[in-house]
Amino acid sequence: MVSQNVVVSDAKTGIITVSAVSNSSVFTPSAQKPPTAPGYISISKKKLLKNLEINGAQSQRLTSWVDSMRASSPTHLKSLPSLSAQEELNSWIKRHPSALDMFERIIEAARGKQIVMFLDYDGTLSPIVDDPDRAFMSSKMRRTVKKMAKSFPTSIVTGRCIDKVYSFVKLAELYYAGSHGMDIKGPTKGFSRYNKDKPSVLYQPAGDFLPMIDEVYKQLVEKTKPTAGAKVENNKFCLSVHFRCVDEKKWSELALKVRSVVQKYPTLKLSQGRKVFEIRPMVKWDKGKALEFLLESLGFENSNEVFPIYIGDDKTDEDAFKLLREREQGFGILVSKFPKDTSASYSLQDPPEVMDFLRRLVEWKQTQQ
């Protein structure tokens, strides 16, 4: 009997030497374990294959995550051949035409109904910036949103915590749904004519998760500290790990760090937005549910007399877009300069176009009075 090394070839990693065993123990069952050669680790073939399967799945998941991280960066689309990119954009615009170009059609569909506005913040009312603490909206946008709130019930629906987004918006007459809708608050009493006869809105479906969120926040701050450019944001009922300023070569490493923390908490889920990881409680609640709750709070539950318009730029806004399609009421408008898979009906390119659209809505409303 000749003792030899057992090797397993893997297409991705090359050849891995596992252990030294005899020929007979490789091909025939044996009651006794062969001696392990010095410097090698004894491992059964079944266990080895299982480990390789697990590692392979993890590698595939990581690759998928990194691909998704790249996809969240519109700059990668610029590497496509210009003709191909333009054809793709033209095709996408046909399916999701500009809300400015289709304004008259939108107004016609809304005629005789109560328009209710839902607005994301980052990338919709303010530009996407490297430092999330400096995502300020312009004074012109603030004035436009203020006029909007006088004309229609208006809500900000954001992944940010309410206190943070309020410090940017500074308008007491709005409804705010922070932490992806898990922290909902109505207008300050006396500031909005739409909640005069209604009780103050306050809803927090994930309140029990606050201690866990704080605990995970501290771990993520510590874990990501060595990664230059990474920033962890505590949004009260959810967490964000921003990688907009992280070197792309470090994205895989950062993804592994974030996953290593979150996987210890089975009641939290990890998702990804525009150059940001989102950590949220596993509750059946999202921006779509928040939209539904706010419509109910305004007295439009199961109403055919309401026309919701939701404007957002991120993956998390898709829940709201899908809900509007399911209700067959109102429209979703995606803010993007590049083709994206979306359930939104229309598109706008950037915050300046959003402001133009809101202004036109206000002007149209004034002509109806």
TrEMBL record:
InterPro entries: HAD-like_sf, HAD-SF_hydro_IIB, HAD_sf, OTSB-like, Trehalose_PPase
EC number: 3.1.3.12
Enzymatic reactions: alpha,alpha-trehalose 6-phosphate + H2O = alpha,alpha-trehalose + phosphate
Keyword terms: Hydrolase
Cofactor: a divalent metal cation
Uppermost EC category: hydrolase
Pathway: Glycan biosynthesis; trehalose biosynthesis
Domain of life: Eukaryota
Pfam families cross-referenced by the UniProt entry: Trehalose_PPase
SUPFAM superfamilies the record matches: HAD-like
Entry annotated with the keyword Hydrolase: yes
Job of this protein: Removes the phosphate from trehalose 6-phosphate to produce free trehalose. Trehalose accumulation in plant may improve abiotic stress tolerance.
Stated family: Belongs to the trehalose phosphatase family.
The protein's name in its UniProt record: Trehalose 6-phosphate phosphatase
Taxonomic lineage of the native organism: Eukaryota, Viridiplantae, Streptophyta, Embryophyta, Tracheophyta
